[in-house]
Q: What sequence folds into this?
């Protein structure tokens, strides 16, 4: 009887692993069909598992996001990756059965890494004109700065939509990957912040139709959300090194030497599509659909940038702003698009009860500001209370050590 039960467990684990691998492959191929880059270096899908596809180069295909299958997240097509997928760990954890958050039904454009030849500091032809609005900077807390600007597109449309930047000093904050696969439920940005003591956070990346599993490799400490390295996702955000003289937080590109060895030396890792590579090359094709975009970047001084354009933009236009706003950004990862894209920041001193473009709430003696993307067709801001499964957040260094 025990042998039969053990055999049954082995078969179930194998079936679960196979199913998740098929879902990951499906998300990558669907994203490609939706307009994302066919492989890295290429552009990522625009949103988590959504059904809308974006225009892409003739040879590119977009991974489909979960939305197309379950109306959960949204995924746009991503660039082809330099190497084949690889499984690093045991089967993915079972999902928690929670419903997937609504998505805006948009997909990301596909690129082939050569489709967008823009160099760092230069704009694609479609984005070559227009002003670059200055960011207005304020310190929310030591090592945590908020930058805000209204883009020309927002002014012309008469919308209250803003370009938001959070600049984070990794020497003052610890990074954490908060996942529904571990906590047991997807939460709103506000709930992630308040339940886990996060000072700031952003989408960790797009996710599969189960509304739990990240589209690429994702782990935090011993907890693995997805143990498979996505073949079309070109880089990893990593943090909390466990050995060696490594940066406290970094972005590892899969076409750079030594990335695999470094990956194992970080306690946190989440894989995503690259929007801009370390050479300053935009990897997405021009002419894609317009969506709100959330992204994560590293600057030349090793600081980490959480980025959000509430105003729907083409991916190449978003990349152009990032490269021309004097941010010093190098590698930029696309992490989400549409109404699901969002970020938050706690302002401990409560100097102001509101921030432009944000939903603001009293929290921990200060004010928590939550910015969400917009629904492209209606121009309505995304629901700040919508649940999201995976969040990249920061804790104060002192709190992280407790």
A:
């Amino acid at each position: 009887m025990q042998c039969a039960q053990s055999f049954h467990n082995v078969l179930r684990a194998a079936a679960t692993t196979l199913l998740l691998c098929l879902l990951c492959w499906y998300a990558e191929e669907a994203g490609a069909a939706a307009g994302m880059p066919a492989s890295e270096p290429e552009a990522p899908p625009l949103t988590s598992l959504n059904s809308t596809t974006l225009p892409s180069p003739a040879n590119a295909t977009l991974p489909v996001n979960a939305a197309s299958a379950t109306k959960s997240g949204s995924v746009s097509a991503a660039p082809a990756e330099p190497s084949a997928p690889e499984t690093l760990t045991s089967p993915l954890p079972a999902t928690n059965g929670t419903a997937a958050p609504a998505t805006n039904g948009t997909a990301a454009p596909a690129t082939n890494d050569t489709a967008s030849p823009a160099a760092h500091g230069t704009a694609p032809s479609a984005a070559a004109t227009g002003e670059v609005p200055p960011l207005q900077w304020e310190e929310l807390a030591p090592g945590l700065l908020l930058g805000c600007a209204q883009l020309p597109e927002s002014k012309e449309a008469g919308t209250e939509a803003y370009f938001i930047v959070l600049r984070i000093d990794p020497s003052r904050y610890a990074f954490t990957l908060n996942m529904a696969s571990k906590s047991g439920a997807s939460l709103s940005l506000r709930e992630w912040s308040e339940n886990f003591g996060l000072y700031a956070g952003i989408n960790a990346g797009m996710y599969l139709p189960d509304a739990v599993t990240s589209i690429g490799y994702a782990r935090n400490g011993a907890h693995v959300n997805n143990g498979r390295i996505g073949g079309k996702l070109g880089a990893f955000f990593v943090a909390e090194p466990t050995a060696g003289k490594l940066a406290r937080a970094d972005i590892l590109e899969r076409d750079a030497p030594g990335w695999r060895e470094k990956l194992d030396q970080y306690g946190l890792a989440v894989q995503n599509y690259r929007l801009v590579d370390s050479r300053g090359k935009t990897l997405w094709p021009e002419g894609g659909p317009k969506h709100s975009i959330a992204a994560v970047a590293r600057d030349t001084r090793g600081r980490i940038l959480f980025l959000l354009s509430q105003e729907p933009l083409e991916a190449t236009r978003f990349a152009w702003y990032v490269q021309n706003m004097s941010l010093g950004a190098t590698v930029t990862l696309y992490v989400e698009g549409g109404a699901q894209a969002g970020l938050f920041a706690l302002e401990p001193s409560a100097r102001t009860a509101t921030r432009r473009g944000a939903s603001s709430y009293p929290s921990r003696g200060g004010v928590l500001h939550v910015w969400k993307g917009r629904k492209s067709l209606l121009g309505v801001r995304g629901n700040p209370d919508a649940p999201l499964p995976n969040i990249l957040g920061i804790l104060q260094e002192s709190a992280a050590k407790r």
